[in-house]
Amino acid sequence: MAIVADIQRHFILQYDLFLRGGITIWTISFNDDFIFGQGLIDAVALEEKAVYPRIIIGSAIMNYVLQTHFVKPEYLRRACEIENRAHAGEGVSDEELEFCNAILPAVNEEKFYLKWRDVLI
C-alpha cells in the first residue's frame, strides 16, 4: 500500500495527473491481445466506485492485511489467557510456561508486523 501511495504521489507531483484504480486479489490471464479474468473484473468494479481520484483496496486484501500471519489466533488467545491468569496472581503450569515460551518468537514477529501494518494503513 505504501508503494501504491508513492506511485500516486509521483504521478501527482511529476505529471499533475491524479490516478483512479482498484486493487484486489484474484487471478488474471493475458495474451498478446487481451487481459481477462476475475481479478480484472473485480479491479474494474472497485475502480468504478472511485468517484474521486484514488486507489481503492479490495476487501480481500484488507482481510489478508488484518489477519494474523505468524501465530494462530487460537494460540494467541491461549497465551493471553495464561498471561492474564499470571497477572492476576494465579499459578501457571510448567506446560503453560513452555507453551508461551515456544510461541514467543511468533508473537514478536506478529507484533512487528502489526506495528508496520498500522503505519501503512
Tell me what the structure shows.
By secondary structure, the protein is mainly alpha-helical. It has helices at residues 2-15, 38-48, 59-66, 73-87, 94-120; strands at 21-23, 29-30, 35-36, 55-57. It has a two-stranded parallel sheet. Strand 2 and strand 3 (35-36) form a beta hairpin. Helix 4 crosses helix 5 (94-120). The mean pLDDT is 87.
The separation of the N and C termini measures 8 Å
What does the radius of gyration come to? 21 Å
Question: Approximately what portion of the residues adopt beta-strand conformation?
Answer: 5-15%
Largest β sheet strand count, sense and barrel closure: 2 strands, parallel
Give the SSE order as H and E letters. Answer: HEEEHEHHH
Would you identify the regions where 5 or more consecutive residues have pLDDT less than 50? none
**SS summary, helix count:** 5
Helix fraction, binned, reads 55-70%
Based on CA inertia axes, which overall geometry fits? Answer: elongated
Structural class: mainly alpha
